[in-house]
Amino acid sequence: MNTQQFWQLIEAARSQALDPDDVEAVARRATSLLATHPAEEIVAAQQVLWNLMADSYTNPLWAAAYVVNGGCSDDGFDYFRGWLIAQGREVFERIVADPDALAEMPVVRASAADGIDLNCEETLSIVWNAHVTATGKELPDDAFTIRYPNLDPAWDFDFDDQGEMSRRLPRLAALHLE
Questions:
Q1: Which of 5, 31, 33, 177 has the highest count of CB atoms within 10 angstroms of its CB?
Q2: Which of 27, 77, 79, 87 is CA-nearest to residue 57?
Q3: Cα(19)–Cα(115) distance, rounded to whole angstroms?
Q4: What is the pLDDT of residues 144-175, one digit of tens each?
Q5: Which of 45, 165, 7 is nearest to 99 (CA)?
Q6: Closest CA to 97 of 142, 122, 64
Q7: Residue 109 has pLDDT above 80, yes or no
Q8: Coil, helix or strand for 121?
Q9: Could you tell me if 152 and 60 are in contact, meaning their C-beta atoms sit under 8 angstroms apart?
Q10: What is the end-to-end Cα distance of the chain in Å, rounded?
Q11: DSSP state of 157
Q12: Whether 41 contacts 1, CB under 8 Å
């Protein structure tokens, strides 16, 4: 499975979910769809998933997740990126390129009003669960490698600094910070 096929899987899962904003349902549907693929493709999907996680491992996106969710640990950032992947390719690529554009998304605006965190740990288990379903076995230990890039030192500041967040992520700050 390559990146394009993975995104097609996510789009199919979003279109088949009763509510595409229910990211847990999207992840479950993606798991079910992926489990119908040959085992080799399922294993290959794990590398694609972790490549997307690496592609989205940036300070600006982490800062945006921090603002949106009122804080963001290492694990929380993983789960936020799981939520972002479940939004589909177009949204993922747009937000990775411009994290402040999250403020334009209706689901982000609703989460701000309702105080709901945006995360989906289940997205990170799509491939694992599909492999277990399809084969009855865990993924091989060498199914993927994680290649996180270095974070941008220009974004190495205290994310609780509301002035700095307002300067760097003005739309999100206006939506979430008081």
A1: 31
A2: 77
A3: 20
A4: 998 889 999 999 999 999 999 999 999 999 99
A5: 165
A6: 64
A7: yes
A8: helix
A9: yes
A10: 44
A11: S
A12: yes
